[in-house]
Amino acid sequence: MSTxxxxxxxxxxxxxxxxxxxxxxxxxxxxxxxxVMRTMNTEKLIKTLPIIQNQLDALLDFxxxxxxxxxxxxxxxxxxxxxxxxxxFAAYNEGVINLLEKYxxxxxxxxxxALDIYKKFLYRMTKLxxxxxVAE
Length: 136
Prior knowledge:
There is one protein chain. By secondary structure, this protein is mainly alpha-helical. The protein has five helices and no strands. The protein has helices spanning 2-22, 36-39, 42-60, 72-101, 108-135. It is elongated and about 50 Å long. The two termini are 21 Å apart.
C-alpha cells in the first residue's frame, strides 16, 4: 500500500503546487465555450498548459493494475484520481483546443511552444486511455 499512498501523495503535492502557481483548481474550473481555458489569451495559455501537464503526469504515475485494486485504500485513492482525471482532461483538452485555434495568429517562438505542448498532449492522451482502461 505504501507505494500507492506515496504516488497519491505526489499527485496531491502537484495539485497544491499547481494551485499556488496559477491560483486555480483545474478540476473545479468552469468549462464550455465561455469557460476559463477557452477564453484565455495565448501567452497565459502557453504558461498554464505545462502546469496542467505536470499535474496530469503526477496523476498518471499512480500506475495501478486491476489486480492491485482489491485493497480498499488503493481502490479509494484510485477512484479519487479517476474523478480528477476526467475533470483535468476536460480542462487540458479545452486549453489545447484554444491553443490550436490561435496557432496561426502566434509569433514564431509561441508556435514552437504550442507545437511542443500539442506533442506532449498526444502522448498524455495515450497514457490517459491506459489509465481509463484500468478504471473500466
